[in-house]
Structure formats: C-alpha cells, structure tokens
Amino acid sequence: MGDDPHLIMFRVSGHLGPLALAAFPGMVAGPQGPDTVLTGLLPDRSALFGALAEIETLGLDLLEMRTLVPADLSSDRTGARIELLDALLHGKLFDRWSVREAADCLGLPATGPYAAIAAQAPALGAQALPRIGPKLRSLDIFSVWWQLPELSIGLASVRGGAQWDALLALLSRTATTRIGVSPRFDDLGDTARALRYARIALRGHADPDARVTVFDGSILGSAAVCDPEVTTKLVAPLLDSFTELADEERELLFETFRIWVETDGSLRAAGELLFCHPNTVRYRLHRIEERTGRSLSRPRDLAELCFAFEVHRRLL
Question: Given 3-state DSSP classes, what are the helix, strand and coil percentages for the chain, each rounded to the nearest 5?
C-alpha cells in the first residue's frame, strides 16, 4: 500500500463491543460468523499502521487483512469510486461530492428513485451475484456494485413500478444466498440509510421460503433483527419455556399467536384463518400465558411476547 487511498478489510476474532469499535471511527463493522469484519477507506500508509496499532493495543487477533477493489470498475475510475463508496457508506456524500458529480462517477441518473441491495456472500470475499450489473442493464436498469468481504452491495436506479418488479424478479431468479433490498428512495444522500435498511432485511427471514426480502418498515421487525446476537439472547428465557414441546406443537402455538396478532386480537378471525373454533384459539393463547408467565391482558407482557415471537420468526 502506497500513499494513495485504499479500501481495506480487517477480519478480527470475536465480536467487538461499542468501546472497541470506537477505536475505528472511519470503518464499517459487521459480524462474520464468530469474527468481526472492519471495512473502510484508509487515506495512506500512516492510517493503515495506525489501525494495525489499535488492533494490537486492544489485544485483538488479526485473522485477515485485504485490499478491496469494487467489482466491475475500469481502472481509471476505481480510486474515485472507492472514495465515493466510503462517503456513501458513512453518510458523508455531500462533504466532498455534489449529487451530479456522484451520479456521474457511479454511472447512475442524478435523480431517483433508487434501491440499495445487500447480498450475502457465499464465502468470504466471493461475489453473491456474478455479472448482476450487465443482467440488470439488459432490463434498462442502471446499477453499480461493490464487493465487501461478507457482502455484495449494489445501488440501482429503479424508475417506475415495472422496473421495481423486474429488479426483484431478477434477484429472486439469480439468488443463491439471502438478499435484502431497501425501499425505494429519491436522494443519493440517503444511500447510507438505505443500505442499513437492506442489511436489516438481509438479517431477517420473515418468509423462510424467499431468498429476497424487501425492508418492510416494521418497527417491531427492525428492532428484532437490528442486533441478532443481543436480541436472541434477550428472548431466549421466554422461548425456552416451550422447549419441552414437540416441534409441531410448539410451531402451532407460535403460529396461533402470530395470526391472532395480525387479526387485531380477534378470536373469530384467527379461528377462520387457522380452520378451528375461536375457543381453540383462546385455549392455545392461554397455554402460551401459562408457559411464559405472561398475561395477554397486560400491555408490557404482550409487548414482550410480540417481540420474542418476532425474533423467533425472523432469526431462529
């Protein structure tokens, strides 16, 4: 590495807490199995040595270090796009770029709507969606893609409902791993937020049969998957109260609760969807109360149950 900016990836052992992450303010952190991956733009060799010194000071085990290059870029624009990627990831686009300059560098229209995509890499550093750019271009959808250690991330110009549907259909046909997609947005300056939404959608699996998940804006769903390691530990004691049940019986209770919530607490409507009598729905809900020690008539207890079952549905 010379004195030009480079996009660098470190992989260190263990999951880093807030204090450790604060030592790397210019880097994006994400879990990779039992490890943590740090990715960021380092302006020169001095910054690289500084980051390595922080890793040593914190007593972290450095498992891998790699210089990353965005996917499918011509060499004459790679440096500019690396810097722009860093600005987009950190929500600092307008510190150094105008919208038109950024759009021109990315090869995208200067006005939205856009969509952000996060696709889980099949292996560390591997592309999740090979040649996805040309495939989208054949549908008249302009896009730009970057390869991070654990993700392929993309930004696509999606004009109108037909292109939105075509984007989702192509992603669904070509997906071999999970993919999260943000809602459509109009301002390139909102790319960092949209990528967070895409990564939240990637973490959850509200529909286990679908590889592609669009961020639904659910407060409960977003809270459930925002920090999987924390949320699964929080709800474990409550969900453990069902471990003695057979899998089929446990899932029946969970499905009954979910449908009861989705039908606004109507026993009759839930019973119709579950093909059972309202009294059967009432009995199953009472069993949930007995096992968890929570009451569906107490708002705090109900909120905890909703959160626990949402974590189970999306993460477990």
Answer: 50, 15, 30
Q: How far apart are CA 53 and CA 60, in angstroms?
A: 10
Please give the backbone phi and psi of residue 182, each rounded to the nearest 5 degrees, phi first. -80, 165
Contacts of 193 (CB under 8 A, 6+ apart): 91, 185
Report the alpha-carbon distance of residue 292 to residue 300 in Å, rounded. Answer: 13
DSSP three-state, residue 181: strand
Q: Alpha carbon of 306 to those of 40, 148, 171, 206: distances in Å? A: 37, 34, 31, 14
Low-confidence winner among 2-11, 154-163, 209-218, 261-270 (lowest mean pLDDT)? 2-11
Same domain, 105 and 12: no
Burial 107-117 (b: 16+ CB within 10 A, else e): ebeeebbbbbb
* Percent of the chain whose predicted confidence (pLDDT) is above 70: 87
Q: Where is the domain boundary, 195, 217, 239?
A: 217
* Token duo for residue 263: 């039908």
- Summary count for the chain: helices (H), strands (E): 14, 9
Q: Which two tokens stand for residue 197?
A: 């939404």
Sheet of 151-157, strands arranged across = 143-147, 151-157, 114-120, 179-181, 212-214
Domain end call among 193, 217, 241: 217
pLDDT tens digits along 146-166: 877 778 889 999 988 899 999
